[in-house]
Structure formats: structure tokens, C-alpha cells
């Protein structure tokens, strides 16, 4: 039997929606292996730092980087060609349930295995202390990486979803938090996200001075979640050099078609944002606040002003880790039932952001969830609801926009309205039927 409160929304009219395509300026990498080879060969210092037979720990994190398995395989192949004996160290702080087995499993879910990479994966949560910050905070690093003959840092460089600093997600963070495992992540987050950026840099400087970091390989992605650039940075000046690519990554970010075009983040009001899926492969926060304007911390600002956010589901790859769905206002019972407290609570307790482990109102199905968001969005013009539907916060090439929003976005450069606005379609179970273009 359906709950009684469903009667309060079942007659709410939903806006007609049109399919829209955004065209972003983007540079693509056509050949991953060749690009990795050229980047490493072009960094003259690399060959001087690799000795035949030396063991090299390669960091691989928990994020769904574009072309991740291909990148890892190419990097391993280049290290082997130089005579090294590489192995992968899962470098993801507390992710994977903060267990060695869980972190190896996370890599497998991302397509990185010993077979795909062509080298061993050695996973452990054991760390060693390599220094102490001025405030007495311990600086720790994965023992297996520390005991190797050398470390190669590998990570995507991009804006973080919970703090702003000169270095955000990238090589410095991989060194400080990723390789710090549970203890390193705990320490870095101990004072809250207003200090994370500072500690990322301070801990990275200590580790660069005390550990055998050979070089770093960073990737930059474009607005289509595709590989745009591979860069190789020496440990000397790595922190400062990475900042150039962070600025580039910020400019490359996709965005909703709202607000001034010369700003990296969307801005302005929106009645309802409908998100099909949250997931770790889209954002460390599951749902990127750079897109939604709904951060879980005070260390990040900007983005649109959305009255109601409705989320329909969590991806299978996330295995119930719907961390960040708390920033929604309405979800479905399916998402509620798939919410895995073990993984979400581990993330939240480590980061100190307890609000990220909360759950919004859960409605029986997708239709009633959307109706609840529309009913409560406080619009002064209920017949002219502004609503955008996106598949997730990473892939924004295609979206659905409500009829009332079309005049506002029709004249924007790079925006194509692909269909006439039509009523939203649902099946007998209340599941949204309106499809995305094939392959998206």
C-alpha cells in the first residue's frame, strides 16, 4: 500500500521538458599509450632517475579517471621499458572501507587489476611516520611505497568538491592523503575542510623532502570527461607547477547553462535540479557541488542557487556509497534502500563532514520524488517551473530543460535545443522513461 503522504503530491503538474545539447571547447587525447610515452620521454629527468631492477611504487586512487586502465597500463609499460620493476599501491586514504582488501576491490571496480596493468598490486593499510608538522600532526605514508626504491605519483589534477586552495585534487593530495591511508586522511581532515588545503601542501612538502618520490604523472580532463592532457612533473617544484594545471582544469569543467559565460561555475536561480545518479565515479562527493552549488562544507563556495535537488539513484559501481546525497532534498525509496552506511559513514567520519552521511526525504518512486521537489520549490510561478535534468554531475553534454527555461538558454553560445518540450513520461511503476541519447 502506498503511504498516505503520496496524496499530497500525486496531482502536482510537472513541466514539459526539451532535450538540450551543450557543446564545450575541448581537446582530446587520441592515443593514450603514445601520449604517456611522449610525456615521459619529453621529461628528460625521468630516465636519469630510473635504475635497472629498482622497485617502483605507482599510486592509483579511487576516482574514475578518464581512460584509467589504459593510463595505468601505459605508465607501467614505460616504467618497465626503463628497467624498473613497478607495482601498484592503492592510494585512496580511507576509501574501500579502509581495508587493504577493500581498496584492491575498488581498483578492480575501476578496471585496474594485475592482469590489466601488467604488474602486481600490493595493498596494505600499514603506514610509517616520516615527519611531524609544526602543530604536532604526524605525517605518515604507506609502508610499501616508503620501502620501495622509488615512488611515482599518478593522479588527475582537478578542482576539489569540498575545499578551495592553491592545490586541490592532484599529485600533492595523492601524496598527502592518498598515500597516507586511513591515518593520513584522518590527520589531514582533523581540523576540518577549511584547513585541508593547507595540510595537503604542508604534508606533501614533508614527504617530498623525506621520501623517494621520483616524479609525478598528472592528467587533465576536458568538459566531456575525456583525457585532455598528460603532464610529467619532477618533485622539485611539483607543488607550484601543479597549480598551473589546476587552473586549466577549472576552466575545462562542464557546467549548467546558467549565469555569465566568462565564469567557470554556473550561477543564478533554478527551481529544481533533477539528477539521475550520484556516484563515486562522478565526484568524490557523489554529486559535485561545483555543479550543483550545494557544498557539504563552508570551505567551498559558488555555483547556482537551486531551490530543490532531486536524486533518483546511486550507481552500481558505487556499491551503495551514496556519500553526498545528503545535499539533495528528495530521493527515491530505491536510493534509500541502496544506501550503504558502512562505506558512507567511514567516509564521513574520516573527513569529519557528518552532514554528508544524512539522508533526505525518500518518496516511493521517481515520479512522486520529482513531484515532491516541484511542489516544495517555492516558485512564485508554479506554471513556469525552471527545471534541469542531468544524468549526473560529470556528464553535462546532454540535459533536459523545462519549457520555461528555454528562452533563457536558447541564445547561449554552444547550446542546441534538440526537441520540442513534451510532457515527462513514466511507466506504471513511476519510473522516468524519457531516454538519453544512445551512449550517454
Automatic annotation (TrEMBL):
The record's InterPro entries line, in alphabetical order, gives:
LarA-like_N
Offer an example of a GO molecular function term for this protein.
lactate racemase activity
The residue ranges of the LarA-like N-terminal domain are 29-186
Name of the protein? LarA-like N-terminal domain-containing protein
This chain's source organism reads: Azorhizobium oxalatiphilum
- What lineage does UniProt assign to this protein's organism? Bacteria, Pseudomonadati, Pseudomonadota, Alphaproteobacteria, Hyphomicrobiales
